[in-house]
Design a protein that fits this description.
The complex is a heterodimer of chains A (349) and B (325). By secondary structure, chain A is an alpha/beta fold. Chain A is built from 11 helices and 12 strands. In chain A, the strands form 2 sheets. A 6-stranded parallel sheet of chain A has the order 2-1-3-4-5-11, with helices on both faces. In chain A, strand 8, helix 8 and strand 9 form a beta-alpha-beta unit. The radius of gyration of chain A is 25 Å and the shape is elongated. Chain B has one domain. Chain B has 14 helices and 4 strands. In chain B, helix 4 runs antiparallel to helix 5. The longest helix of chain B has 35 residues. Classes of the chains: A alpha/beta (349), B mainly alpha (325). At the A-B interface, helix 2, strand 7, helix 7, helix 8 and helix 9 of A face helix 3, helix 6, strand 1 and helix 13 of B.
Chain lengths: 349, 325
């Protein structure tokens, strides 16, 4: 009997030790992948651009190439790129990604033209066993292996918070006109929601008028003019992207409402991206606040994630959102690594 | 044969629908039916009106040109490259822009008429190629144009912006070309029936080539007004113009099969498309309502137009039957 008790106690202790040594359950959407020494050292990254119509996209691509070279050298691997562009055509992007799958690339990175339609491409890649990363525009209706992008909601929140501070400090009660982006673009939706959140929480302004621009240059102009025609007492604007600042600037000038910060009749302007026109608007003192869209940091996060996936490493998180930095007309000169400064042709001071 | 009152009303159904739309917008928003609003709206669409007026000539021949938006973009890229990056004098750059627009149109025309490639396939290909060339030249950037040119965006004669007057003048000029010149008559004849027109002595290749040249030329001129208005060369310039342009042309009464319609119809077409957008903006509705209302209003207007055509068709049959009896 004594012998039997000893056996039972020892067995229980052994069982407890085994259970106690198990890792805690990780609540993450990341599929758990065993870390292993890569047998493969030569990797091909497939990159599907939905379109390549902005300098920002070229900046991303250049930074990705540069960072990939540096990281590959560090890790003793080789990275080759296969890049295709869909020219804004959802169907063509699906077919381009099929091409990447048939070329048997090691990872697919896609900036989606349509956040929902990209899920069909993700499914195809998953079936072929190729990891899939969405870049900049998050997928809707599926969860790819990773998403790398800007935190567009947080971008609008940080712009909004700084803008609220500014209006409160100047004792201004804001009546704002909002130019929204393309409602098919999740970033545009996140931005309008982020702006609305701060509006509700801080009460520093009221958005009296909203126009969906679909990023159409003509609608930036007409939206501005029609907004001020309906609300002549409006004194502030929230622009979905400061890439459209030049158009808004001309529209404001034509209706006699263009004035720099500190000048009489100044329209307070909040936006995002610090794109080339926005950089100019901040430098010239017409725009007040913008949150940067940090192309270099996005590219770095993307390459790190892609390397981790192809080398079979476990990701800490499947959603890697890179925050932006708040840039104002006060600090724009001191803010470092703004891609608009590197890629733009600002001829001012 | 006399038309009944309902038939008469249906004959003008499109105009009645348009008037109804104007009335609804006017009643719902006080700042819609004002001269200032209409001037601003026309100022907004002036560059587009110029760009698509050449396209309308191609459509009158029964062909199509999908590349107008890309030509406008490429011409804008060339111009800003010369003016800003190479610091060429503005006036020389503008002349080169206009000429290059015509050259790109000529390329389309030569591919269609000499290489004998279908216009749809040709211009679909050049639409991509021209845009790609534009990106190579200007680097897909937002490029601010020289101050000298940018400052022209708000120039007015009285209360009217100069670009409105120029766009109207150019469309009227093309209307006279269509109606009062041999080239215009040949254009319409080819659009009606190419085979018969050729038998009657119309030199179809040269007429087609000239139509494409004019399409490129006007896309180039429109491009100049576009960049002046925005103050920037934008990477999205002309995107989707081929489809908006064709919609405007069709609403303006120019048949996609060619040989039917008037250049003056472009005013009606562009006014209809822009008035809807303008009215919706003035209403200040939720942004999510726009696509639905835009689609519903365009459908209503087009349905009214199709009713008119149906009545015409029925009347034609009745006339033939009465003649036969």
């Amino acid at each position: 009997m004594k012998q039997l008790s000893k056996v039972i106690i020892v067995s229980l202790i052994a069982l407890m030790l085994v259970v106690g040594c198990q890792p805690a359950t990780i609540e993450t959407e990341t599929p758990v992948v065993e870390t292993a020494v890569p047998a493969q050292t030569d990797f091909t990254f497939g990159l599907s651009w939905n379109r390549k119509d902005l300098q920002l996209i070229q900046a991303w691509e250049d930074y990705m190439n540069k960072i990939a070279k540096e990281m590959a050298a560090e890790k003793g691997i080789t990275i080759n790129w296969v890049i295709n562009v869909a020219d804004g055509d959802v169907t063509r992007q699906a077919s381009n990604i099929e091409d990447l799958i048939s070329q048997d690339v090691d990872v697919i990175i896609a900036r989606a033209e349509d956040s929902a339609a990209i899920c069909a491409s993700y499914d195809a890649a998953k079936e072929a066993g190729i990891p899939f990363i969405t870049f900049d525009r998050e997928a809707e209706g599926c969860t790819p292996d990773a998403h790398v992008g800007a935190d567009s909601f947080n971008q609008a929140v940080s712009t909004g918070e700084t803008f609220a501070d500014l209006l409160e400090a100047k004792g201004v009660e804001g009546k704002c006109i909002e130019l929204i982006g393309d409602l098919k673009d999740q970033n545009a939706v996140n931005r309008t929601e982020g702006w609305a959140k701060v509006e509700q929480e801080r009460g520093a302004w009221e958005t009296v008028y909203q126009v969906p621009t679909e990023y159409d240059p003509e609608k930036f102009t007409s939206g501005t003019k029609n907004g001020f025609s309906e609300y002549p007492d409006a004194n502030c604007m929230f622009i979905t992207t400061d890439a459209g600042w030049g158009l808004v600037q001309n529209a404001l000038q034509e209706i006699g409402k263009l004035a720099k910060t500190g000048e009489e009749g100044h329209i307070w302007i909040a936006s995002q991206d610090v794109d080339i026109p926005g950089y100019q608007g901040l430098m010239e003192g017409y725009m007040d606040v913008s949150t940067s869209y940090d192309a270099y940091n996005h590219a770095q996060a993307l390459v790190e994630t892609a390397i981790s996936l192809v080398m079979g490493e476990t990701l800490k998180s499947t959603s890697i959102l890179v925050p932006g930095r708040v840039v104002t007309s006060e600090n724009v000169r001191e803010t470092e690594n703004l891609w608009a400064r590197d890629y733009g042709d600002y001829q001012g001071e | 044969m006399k038309m009944t009152i309902p038939q008469r009303l249906l004959n003008y159904a499109f105009y009645i629908a348009l008037l109804a739309i104007l009335l609804v917008f006017s009643l719902l928003t006080p700042n819609f039916l004002t001269s200032q609003n209409f001037i601003e709206m026309m100022h907004g669409f002036a560059p587009v009106l110029i760009m698509i007026s050449g396209l309308a000539l191609v459509v009158l021949t029964g062909a199509i040109d999908f590349s107008v938006g890309s030509i406008a973009f490429l011409v804008g890229s060339i111009g800003t490259y010369l003016m800003v990056m190479q610091e060429w004098p503005v006036w020389i750059s503008l002349i080169i822009m206009i000429i290059s627009g015509a050259i790109f149109g000529l390329i389309n025309g030569l591919i269609v008429e000499v290489v004998k490639v279908n216009p749809l396939i040709t211009t679909f290909g050049t639409m991509l190629a021209f845009r790609g060339m534009g990106y190579l030249i200007a680097g897909a950037k937002y490029i601010p144009i020289p101050r000298l040119l940018a400052d022209l965006h708000g120039v007015k004669i009285g209360p009217i912006y100069v670009d409105i007057l120029i766009s109207i003048g150019l469309v009227i000029f093309l209307f006279f070309v269509q109606k009062r010149t041999v080239f215009g008559r040949h254009l319409m004849a080819l659009g009606c029936n190419r085979e018969n027109a050729t038998k009657l002595g119309v030199k179809s290749p040269s007429v087609f080539i000239w139509a494409f040249v004019l399409s490129g030329l006007f896309a180039g001129i429109g491009s100049i007004f576009y960049i002046i208005q925005g103050g920037y060369m934008t990477p999205r310039m002309g995107q989707g113009l081929e489809f908006t342009g064709i919609a405007i042309i069709v609403i303006g009464g120019i048949s996609l099969f060619g040989g039917e319609g008037s250049l003056l119809g472009l005013f009606l077409g562009i006014f209809t498309v822009y008035v809807i957008e303008n009215g919706l903006q003035h209403l200040g509705l939720s942004p999510y309502v726009y696509p639905f209302l835009r689609g519903a209003i365009i459908f209503l207007a087009m349905y009214a137009d199709s009713l008119k055509n149906r009545i015409r068709h029925v009347r034609k049959i009745q006339t033939v039957e009465e003649g036969g009896a």
